[in-house]
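Write out a record, focusing on structure:
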Amino acid sequence: MKKPLVGIIMGSKSDLSIMAEAAEMLETFGIPFEITIASAHRTPERAAQYATTAQKRGLKVIIAGAGGAAHLPGVIASMTTLPIIGVPIKSSNSIDGWDSILSILQMPSGIPVATVALNGAQNAAILAAQIIAHCDSKVANKLKDFKKSLKKKVEQNIHELEKVDYKEYLKKPSK
């Protein structure tokens, strides 16, 4: 098994259904990763150990997801020089996700966290892959292929829409 390059960390087990999307996307790019749980509030020592040892373990990027107050990405960012990608998660106790978004987005000067959309773990993995692609041509090529596939999907949708009335097209399931 290859040494992980990306760390995926989340505040609780309830975040796993969202953060699994990051893991799945990293798998498609062939990027080895590790995945764990550490709460900024309930297990701060574990979060600190994770952050301070990440670089020594060979990680290049950390994707940190959290809901509610969502302090985990910022806490991790405060303890490492690795790039941190924050995933705000709409949790059961959330204020429609805004609490998570703002907690991750509004970081103090000097502690940057790249923030993706609410529940945007897939985009977090793509951003992590783009960071790694600067040093890894295999990942760069997989990213190029991925972007081409996105273009093909849109072109296919355009072609299908042009063949039918838009009302009929609306009834078709999205791809």
